[in-house]
Amino acid sequence: MRFDATCEDNMTLMARYPDNYFDLAIVDPPYGDGTIKGRNTTLDKNWNFKPDKEYFTELFRVSKNQIVWGGNYFDLPINKHFVIWDKKQFMNNQFARCEYAWSSLRYNANIFQCFYNSDHRMHPTQKPVKLYQWLLQNYAKPGDKILDTHLGSMSIAIACHKEGFDLTGCEIDREYYDAGMKRLEQAMAQQELF
Question: What's the CATH code of the domain at 132?
């Protein structure tokens, strides 16, 4: 697996690549009201930005297909092909019980069920590695080049390592980038033991 991660703005990263370079972009940009305050995370931030039209224009330029978490919060093309992550949370808490991802892929709508323990995360919007593994197993083909423009906790990087996919990605926040890289290195070292 080739892994190329940088700590930089995603527009800078994408500008370096030609049209349709990546086979699949799986991204989790900030959405909602622009303020995310993490609970039980090591690094809490206030995010006061949301990707604009230029971001999506560039994302669609460099990638053949896309899966966009929080797609219901963005002005994306109408599409009936989506993915739902059912967190299997039955208690009423501050987090949504599921998340919606817009997809450009022509598959039937699909639901992935995986319990989410929000008490053990280092990033406010951290997703399980198992979720990304499932996405790769169901929506990527062997040899596909994967792009993530918001690496966050590096869950996708761990999944790409486990599933054998090349990944290019970036994270703009230095603290999250460093913490995520440490998490990835630990996961890779642990996997090598077995």
Answer: 3.40.50.150
Give 50-106 pLDDT, tens digit per residue. Answer: 788 999 999 999 999 999 999 888 889 888 788 999 888 766 656 678 889 999 998
The Cα–Cα gap between 154 and 27 comes to: 12
* Side-chain-facing half-sphere of 60: CA atoms under 13 Å: 12
pLDDT of residue 102: 94
DSSP per residue, the chain:
--EEEESS-HHHHHHTS-TT-EEEEEE----SSS----SS-S----------HHHHHHHHHHEEEEEEETGGGS-----S-EEEEE----S--SS-SEEEEEE-S-S--EEEE----TTS-SSTT---HHHHHHHHHHH--TT-EEEES--TT-HHHHHHHHHT-EEEEE-S-HHHHHHHHHHHHHHHHHHHH-
Q: What is the pLDDT of residue 35?
A: 46
Count of domains for the chain: 1
- What's the domain range around 108? 3-193
